[in-house]
Each structure stands twice: as C-alpha cells, then as structure tokens.
Amino acid sequence: MVVSKANKSLLSSVFKSRIRTTGESSIASGNRDIAGTSQAVKDLLCFKNSSSDLEEVPLQDRVSNLLHVTTSEKTSLEKNLFLKIPSFTTKIPYDISLRSKELSRERKEKRVYKKNGLSRRFAKIFRDSAQKLGTEAMFGAFNRVAKEMSVTEYNAMVGVYLEHAEKSNDLDYALGHIEKAFELLKSMRDRGFLIEERVYGPILGYLIDMDMVEEFQSFKDVIREASPGSVERLGYYEMLFWIQLGDGEKIEELCDTIDGDNRESLSILQENYLLALCKKDQKYHLERLLGIVDITKVQSSDLLTNIFEYLGRFSLDSVAGKFLWELRESDEGVKNVSELISIYSTCTPNPTVEDTILKFNKMHEELDVMPSSTSYEKLVKYSCDSNEVVTALDIVEKMGEAGLIISADILHSLLHAIDEVLEFDLVRRIHSIMCTKSVKPNTENFRSIIRLCTRIKDFEGAYNMLGNLKNFNLEPNSSMFNCILAGYFREKNVCRALMVVKQMKEAGVKPDSITFGYLINNCNREDAITKYYEEMKQAGVQATKRIYMSLIDAYAASGKFEKAKQVLVDPDVPAINQNELKSVLISALASRGKWADALHIYEEMRKAECHVDPKSIISLIEYSDSNGELSTIVQLADDLQDDTSWIDGFFRMILFAVRNRKSSNIVDLLKQNKVRLLKKDLPVETHFDEVFWAIAETEPTKVQLGMDLLRFMKDELGFVPSRKCLDFLLHACVNAKDQEHGLLVWKEYQSAALPCNVLSFLRMYQVLLAAGDLEGAKALVSKIPKDDKDVQHIIEESHSAFSQAPNKKKPKKKTIVSSRKQKNAGLCTSLDR
After folding, report:
1. H, E, C per residue of 681-736
2. What is the torsional sign of CA 264, 266, 270, 276?
3. SS3 804
4. How far apart are alpha carbons 526 and 549 in whole angstroms?
5. PROP1-like PPR domain spans which residues (predicted)?
6. What percent of the chain is modeled with pLDDT above 70?
7. Which of 232, 309, 369, 775 could connect to 269 by a Cys-Cys bridge, CB 3.0–4.6 Å?
8. In the prediction, which pLDDT does 125 show?
9. pLDDT tens-digit readout, 797-830
10. What contacts 651, CB < 8 A, 6 or more positions away?
11. Where are the beta strands (DSSP E) in 24-183?
C-alpha cells in the first residue's frame, strides 16, 4: 500500500516545519573518547537512585536498575520528559503492516552492521530500555543528558528508533519514531559529529521504500551538512529514490552527468549513480550508459561487480565479452578478469551448476586467462548455495592439484553446505583436502570438521583433526574439545565424555562455560550438579546464561523442580536474563509433567507483559494436560506472534484436540484462521499430513473429522491433498471399518491425479475386509501383483486378521451386495488401468 500524494504532502509539510536552520552551531569536539561508558549513560543507568556513587555501582547493576523501573516510575518519566518531541497531530487511517514488514525483512537481509563491542552494548541497552520503559519515556530520559552523549550512543539510539518504525503497523507511530531519529541526527550535526553511512543508510532506505519525498530531502540535507564527505555517496541514494518513484525525468537528469566522450575516469558521484542503476536493473538507462563508459576507467570494484552481475542477470553475453576483452588488454583490468568471469557466469538465470561451470571454463579459455583462487572461491560458494556439495568438493580438489590457495572461506562454504544438506559423510573428503600444501584453514574450520566427524560417530577422525592442528601452526581450543564432548554425550557415553575433560586439561586447554554447561546438563543427580557448578566457580569460569539454563534443565531432569525454580532467585543471575530463564523453566516443567506449574509461570509473565520464548509456548501446547481445556490451548496458540512459531503451535493445538477427543471445534478454528493459513512460505500441507496421521492412530477413529478436514483443505484453502494425507485417511477407514468413506477416499486419489500404487490397493483391500465385504475384497486382491513376498505376507495377514474378526455389518439384502459389486468393479477397473 502506498501513501496518497495528498497525505504525503501533508505529512511532509508537518515534518519539514520542524527543521531548524543550522544557525549558530555549537561545534563540539569530533574526537570524543568512546573507549568507555560516557557520563551520560552512567547518569541514565543510575537515574533510579541518583544519589548512588557511580564509581561504586557495577555496570551490570546499573543496567538492572534501568530495566527494573516500576510502573509508577515509568509513568513519572513519561510525564516529565526534558526534551519533548512534537508528534503528528493528523490521524491517518493507514495500515502499513504488510508493506513495512516485507521491506523491513529485505533491508535486514541486505544490511551489514560493522559495530564494535561497545556500540553493540549500547544498542542493546537502548533496545531493552525501550522495551521496558516505552520509547517515549526512553527518549526523554536519554535526552536529559544528551549534551554528554558520545557518537556511539547517538548511533545506537538512531538504530533503535528505526527498528521500531520498521516493525510498526501504524503509520503515525512509525513516522513519530522517524522524527525522533531526525532530531538525533540534527543534534549530532550541531555538535560536530560525523554521520556515517551505516547510520544514515538504513534510514534513507526506509524513506525511499515509503516514498517520502520531502522527508528524504530533509534527512539528506542534514547528513550533507554534518558529513560533507558523504555528498558523493548520497548520490547513490538519490538515484535509488527517483527510481523508486519512477521519475524518469530526474533519472535522466542524473544520467546526463555521465559523459563518456572524454574517456576519462568517472567521478565517485557518477560511479554511485551507475551503481544504483545496476542495483535496480534499469536496463533502459544502462543500455545507453554502458555503451559510452570506458570500462577500464571504472575504479570502484563494487561497481565492476554490480555491472557484471547485471549483465549476467540479463544474459548480455556480447556486452560482457566486449568488456572482458577490454579489461584483458588493460594493465590493471587484467587482474580482475577471472573474478569477473565467475561473477558473470554465476549470475546467469536458471542454469544448472554443470552449465555454469562449462561457461566458466569456456570464457577463461576464450580470453586465455587462468582461473584465480578468488574466482574458484565464488564458483565453490555458488555450487554450495545450490546444494551441489559433491561438485564443490570436486572443484576444491582441482584447486589443490593446481596449487591454488584453498582459503578458510572456501572451507567454511564447504563445511556449511555439508551441514545444510545433512550429508555428514562428505566430511571424509575434507580430510584429504586438508593434506594439500595450499590449504589455509583457521581454527573455526577445524572446529566445524571435528563437529561433523562426531555427527557420523567418527571420533577417531575428530581426534586426528586435533593432531593436525600443529601442521598449520594452530592450537587446540575449548570449542574443539566441546564438540567431541557433546558428541559423546549424544551417544550416552558418559565415561568417554569425562575422558575428554581430562584430555583438555592435559593439552593445557581450560574448560569454559560451554564445557561446564554440557557437564551440568547431562547430570541426573543433585550432588553431581552441585559438584560441577562448584568446580566451575573454583576454575574462575563466570556463570553465563547458558550455565543457568543448564542448571534449570538438570534440576528438572533429576526431579528437583523446586531447585530448578530457585535458580531464578539466585542473586548472581543478571536481571536482563530473567525472561529467557523463565522461558527455559516453562519448557523444562511442561516437558516433565509439571504442566500446571509451567502454565502458572507463563500466565504471570504474560500478565506482566514480559517476553516469552515462542518455543516455551509451543512446549506448553505440546505437553498439555489431556484433561485441560481446549480454550486454554487455543489462547496459547494465539499468543504466538511470528508466523513460523504460530503455524507450529496452531497445529500442535489441533493435534491435542484430535488425540484428546476435543475435536468438535477443529473445523471452526481452521476457518477462523483461514487468512493466516493462506500465507506464503508456510508448510501448512505438511502439518495437515500430521493431523491425518493422528486421526488414523487415535481410537476411536473419527473418519468424519478427516473427511471434513479434507473438504476444508480443498474448498477453503485450494490445496490438493497429498498422497500421505489420503493414505492416512484410508488407514483410518480400515480402523473404523468404514467402507463408505473408504470408497470416497479412493476417488480422491483420482481427483488429485495420484495413481494408486500397490500400498493404496492393499489398504483398500483391508477396508473391504474390515467392513465384511469378502466378495469385493476377493475381487480386488485378484488384481494386485503378488511378485513381492512382502505384498503376499500383508495379504495373508490381513485376510487372517479381518476375516476372523466379528463383523456387525453383514449384508442383509441382495441389493446391497449388488451395489457393492458395482463399486468394487470400479476398483478393479482402476487397477487394470
């Protein structure tokens, strides 16, 4: 949905009116020391108890004070903001939920954050503050001390406001937060701080996506005034903006600044214009510009990459070939030819990996250049992303034979792909690659190899990898040993797991919190839990969130439920981790029969508006008390917000209803959630298969419910039932001895264009036997191929089981038998076909 021009104009005028001219700018030092927490943040973190000595209060406690502000304090903060930001007075009924969420996902996929540890810490502080206090209260509290804030704190606050705007479904709310981000940027400008692209880029991207013309110009002006060196880069966003609006005149105006007649290098601004055109596949404008640009004069490697990606997407072989030959003849350009070939060949639409490799080799031969390590690396990554892991391994082995460097990044792509496709045995081929002299692994590569070895129970191979570390001047670390430790615990081999800890100490590697987490989590006695926890403290290892989670799980597994609850009241547990630990406690209690206690904790958290991990809510649904009310389980499913968690929880609720004879409202619940079930990329049909399986396995079997669900899938959702779905439903008919519905299901195979296989006929044979139609069963079984011994065995067992069972549905009239004969004749005809 797009904002109307009238609304845009009104919003823009209100927004623009708040922009103050630069005037007298109080320029502060641009080289503020951000090595530690600024006095501003210290003051804020302690605002709950302002009389306390800042130097004596640990940072962790200050954060706790901030995040545990009471309701009355929160209200007071909201009423006493020192710097009030005017809000939009115009209420516009406008739902931006679908568009803003899609755009937000796209931006987050493309966005790369390059933050140091300090800025990440501040961003987390501001985000948690906004969650606890509300953004209005947070903004006021932080602006009380704005004059003392460093550029790092400004950047973090701007990021939080943008996050809230992106996530919002309400336009007024989103624009309010964009306004506040704008005020912060103006404050940064007035204090002489530079505004970096990692800060302004995401904001301009949001304004571009939302078609906000005057707002975009206002932000751009402030950024240019604060950071004069960003003028050329702002040209990139300006071109993106006019492309988004579809303003051909403005695009043409910017394109006219690119003149290739003088054959000189493009300016940085011109290269940014071209980059935006390539990003947005502006074929009309690029066709003209690429015809006049001297490719050898392009200085930006990013622009070269995007030009060849664009050429690949549109399969412009002649243009790509011309450019590559020109670069081939250039002293500097020849260095990039092989890499650009790999970029072009891997961007061609809809080829197979084999075709891509053929094109890659052919272009190298035609241009008489040798493939470089970098170009092979891109080809390996392309193959891995296409799940062609064996092909990728072949390429890497070829690199080793040619003496090319096999980088740590190449190994990472291979190992990640092996993990993704679950073909863990392929890690054995990595062993031989590691023996080549040209391989340059890092410790993370070794950790991944060791972990994959344990997945195939090749512990000898894992230890061999530890021994190979010295060949690359690398040292073993705790994460490598932890992988072996976890592998032995998975195999329930506690003795070998404990031996790993001993080997760590012998190798001079200190166990870390993850090591102790594994040890604690696999204890089934209280004394063992206490022992490892004390050992951890004596070793000087600080308890982490993972340790507290392990304690909760271990105590619950050993039946010490009160001990599990007491972990939360430990004074050493950071307040910031309370919600996550409570979520773990909910799962631990629910999965071990303490469902009522788990539900009580959840309801308390929900009442206090605390965040609960969706996995914990799903645990409550999965392990629900069979005597519980369905309405409670329905509410739990409704509390799941994101679609992935909701679809999982919703169908677990359906399964609960089926298995506990509470299925009368299932179809109504499905109809109420029809819109959400029709969303793209949700595995709805797979979940329906599980429901039909539950119907088939539950006694007494409710075939009518299965038929109702089948009708809902077809008529309301437009789904074609899967073979699994029909197989399970036919199996339900066997259990219910329901011939009438069995024949209806049989017709559904034909409607769904699913040819009936031998298993389908065997199930239908069992339906007829179970229903007492021995004549029809005899006619049907005569058509089933009996070459397979297993098929013969099933037929014999079925006849023995069902023919001896008491049958209450024996035919009383000839007309009924005749009718059955007609129906079964159809079955036999189907088999003949």
Report:
1. CCCHHHHHHHHHHHHHHCCCCCHHHHHHHHHHHHHCCCCCCCHHHHHHHHHHHHHH
2. positive
3. coil
4. 15
5. 380-532
6. 78
7. 232
8. 57
9. 888 887 665 544 444 333 333 344 444 444 444 4
10. 687, 688, 690, 691
11. none
**Rounded Cα gap, residues 564 and 549, in angstroms:** 9
What are the tens digits of pLDDT across the range 369-407?
Answer: 999 999 999 999 999 999 999 999 999 999 998 889 999
301's tokens? 């490697």
b/e sequence 584-593, b meaning 16+ C-beta within 10 Å? bbbbbbbbbe
In 359-396, which positions are buried (b, 16+ CB within 10 angstroms) versus exposed (e)?
Answer: bbeebbeebebebbbbbbbbbbbbbbebebbebbbebb
Nearest Cα residue to 231 out of 281, 270, 187: 270
Average pLDDT over residues 540-558: 94
Segment 725-742, tens digit of pLDDT:
999 999 999 999 999 999
Residue pair 690/651 in contact by the 8 Å Cβ criterion? yes
**Closest C-alpha to 311, from 293, 290, 329:** 290
How does residue 121 score in pLDDT terms, banded at 50, 70 and 90?
Answer: low
Q: CA-CA distance, 498 to 628, in Å (whole number)?
A: 42
Question: For residues 15 and 409, what is the distance between their CA atoms, to the nearest angstrom?
Answer: 47
81 vs 75: CA distance, rounded Å: 11
596 touches 620 (CB < 8 A): no
Side chain identity at residue 537, one-letter code: K
Considering the entire predicted model, what is its pTM? 0.69
Report the 10 Å Cβ neighbour count for 799.
17
pLDDT in tens, 235-246: 999 999 999 999
Are 795 and 781 in contact by the 8 Å Cβ rule? The answer is: yes
CA distance 306 to 322: 16
Tokens of 297: 């004069």
Say if CB 510 and CB 540 are below 8 A apart: no
Hey, what amino acid is at 113? Answer: Y
CB 92 within 8 A of CB 171: yes
d(CA 235, CA 272): 6
Q: Please tell me the predicted confidence (pLDDT) of residue 86.
A: 33
- Phi then psi for residue 439, to 5 deg, are -80, 140
Can you say how many angstroms the Cα of residue 488 is from the centroid of all Cα atoms in its chain? 29
Name residue 599's amino acid: L
One-letter amino acid at 68 equals H
As given in the structure block, the two tokens for residue 727 are: 């197989």
Structure tokens at 435: 């023996």
Under DSSP, the state recorded for 439 is B
**In the predicted model, what is the mean pLDDT of the chain?**
81
Cis before 700 (ω within 30):
yes
Q: pLDDT band at residue 164, thresholds of 50, 70 and 90?
A: confident
- CA pair distance 509, 477, nearest whole angstrom: 6
Q: Of 404, 401, 328, nearest to 369 (Cα)?
A: 328
> Hey, what amino acid is at 13?
S
| Alpha-carbon dihedral sign for residues 112, 117, 119, 120 | positive
Reduced 3-state DSSP string for 286-345: HHHHHHHCCHHHCCCHHHHHHHHHHHHHCCCHHHHHHHHHHHHCCCCHHHHHHHHHHHHH
Residue (of 651, 664, 585, 596) closest to 618 by Cα position: 651
